[in-house]
Specification:
The chain is about 25% helix and about 25% strand. By secondary structure, it is α/β, with parallel strands linked by helices. It is built from eight helices and 19 strands. It folds into two domains: about 40-230, Rossmann fold (3-Layer(aba) Sandwich); about 250-370, Rossmann fold, CATH 3.40.50.1220. A hairpin with a 4-residue loop joins strand 11 and strand 12 (about 185-190). A seven-stranded parallel sheet has the order 9-13-8-3-6-7-14, with helices on both faces. The structure holds flavin-adenine dinucleotide.
């Protein structure tokens, strides 16, 4: 992102990228009748593309979430959804992407693409996309995607909006509006890319809900030829060590019981594990509790923690600060318990209980244990 220029509101900015597309200036000396109206070079850029996120030859859920968003954007823009599927043995998963909303899936298979490498993936994607000109490019903000997005930005000579939480279309201008938390999460910045293509952004996993699988959808799977040699890749993967070796993964949990500062003390907070056990769920927390050392950082939910998408999220004594709720938007049902009827968290909840956390917790425990 080289320059940011304020548009209408302080939170809406236009992304000015290093020029890849130069709009030709009309020649001053040419007679009016000989002057041709220059064609808008941006019009050559079409369709919403998604880069699939692959781990061990398996498509990661963020790819499906992005296809759902791409479908919504493409329908508003009157364009198609195209997916770039890279890996070693991935072609058999292409049809499923069509069932989730893709129109075309481009398959790039090679033993050299089995594991993600910055060099390999960037080369294959950039070689193809510089020729085929996407209007919009979506990348998952996973570990690999966070590495890939800025590299693609360099190759496409273009900006990228990282970690978006809301995507929409300005139908008048035909531009994607990328919304992301800014200034420590205190404001939501809306960013547009009026002058350059592709419009590029990364989106965190679990922010958007997975679209419905529709097995009646049809589309095209194209196995693409491409050039990639071992010498193009300067790194070699020696081993894969998963980040979390013990405990549980909040991002996969279907039921999360979370506590905030309103739990009062660690003893009270630890009672949440009892409820989580009884419901078949796990425990998460707000940042202050992590800072107090009551729970490990990997169970923190929010902007600087995990983004979650459980079926049920129970928020005990949590105020609903923007930095926390930016991580819970993917939850299907949110139930908040707070003794302040004005607490912000109630604005994000499907159900709210105004009351003392421990009184409500005891009652829930009794109900869950069938007492
Ligand atoms: C750059 C930055 C990044 C951040 N990232 C994160 C993040 O990733 N995740 C995160 O969670 N926070 C994050 N924060 C912190 C965030 O701003 C809030 O301070 C935090 O989320 C508040 O945590 P809380 O809701 O537990 O506490 P509080 O805001 O203190 O809220 C406690 C709530 O408990 C209620 N309460 C008190 N007693 C009771 C009772 N007996 N019964 C019922 N209710 C009660 C109160 O009414 C209140 O609403 C970040 C902050 C910054 C600046």
């Amino acid at each position: 992102m080289s320059e940011l220029e304020t548009k209408q509101a302080t939170t809406q900015v236009a992304l000015e990228q290093t020029a890849q597309v130069e709009i030709p200036k009309a020649a001053e000396s040419v007679a009016p009748e000989a002057q041709e109206v220059p064609e808008n070079p941006l019009a050559a850029y079409k369709d919403v593309y998604v880069v699939s996120d692959i781990l061990e030859d398996k498509i990661q859920p963020v790819t499906i979430e992005l296809i759902g968003q791409a479908r919504i954007l493409a329908d508003q823009l009157g364009e198609r959804v195209q997916v770039m599927l890279l890996g070693e043995h991935v072609q058999n998963q292409a049809q499923e992407l069509i069932y989730y909303g893709a129109d075309i899936v481009h398959v790039f298979e090679s033993q050299l693409l089995k594991d993600y490498t910055t060099d390999g993936y960037t080369k294959v994607l950039a070689d193809y996309l510089l020729v085929h000109k996407p209007n919009v490019l979506l990348i998952g903000a996973t570990n690999n995607g966070r590495d890939l997005a800025p590299r693609m930005s360099g190759r496409m000579q273009n900006g990228v909006v990282a970690d978006c939480t809301i995507l929409s279309v300005d139908t008048k201008e035909g531009l994607v509006e990328w919304t992301r938390p800014a200034l420590g999460g205190n404001i939501l910045a809306e960013i547009i890319s009026p002058n350059h293509r592709p419009q590029m952004g990364s989106v965190r996993p679990n922010v958007f809900k997975k679209p419905e699988l529709d097995t009646s959808r049809t589309g095209e799977v194209i196995v693409e030829p491409f050039e990639l040699a071992e010498t193009d890749i300067r790194t070699k993967r020696l081993n894969f060590i998963p980040f979390s070796l013990e405990g549980y993964n909040l991002e996969d949990a279907e039921i999360i019981v979370a506590g905030g500062r309103g739990m009062g003390n660690k003893e009270n907070f630890d009672r949440l594990y009892e409820l989580a056990d009884a419901l078949g769920g796990v425990v998460g927390a707000t940042r202050p509790l992590v800072e107090k050392g009551w729970i490990d950082l990997k169970y923190q939910i929010g902007q600087t923690g995990k983004t979650i998408s459980p079926k049920l999220y129970l928020a005990f004594g949590i105020s609903g600060a923007i930095q926390h709720v930016s991580g819970i938007g993917g939850a299907e049902t949110i139930i908040a318990i707070n003794n302040d009827p004005e607490a912000q968290i109630f604005q994000y909840s499907n159900y709210g209980i105004v009351g003392d956390v421990m009184t409500v917790l005891e009652e829930m425990l009794a109900q869950a244990k069938g007492k």
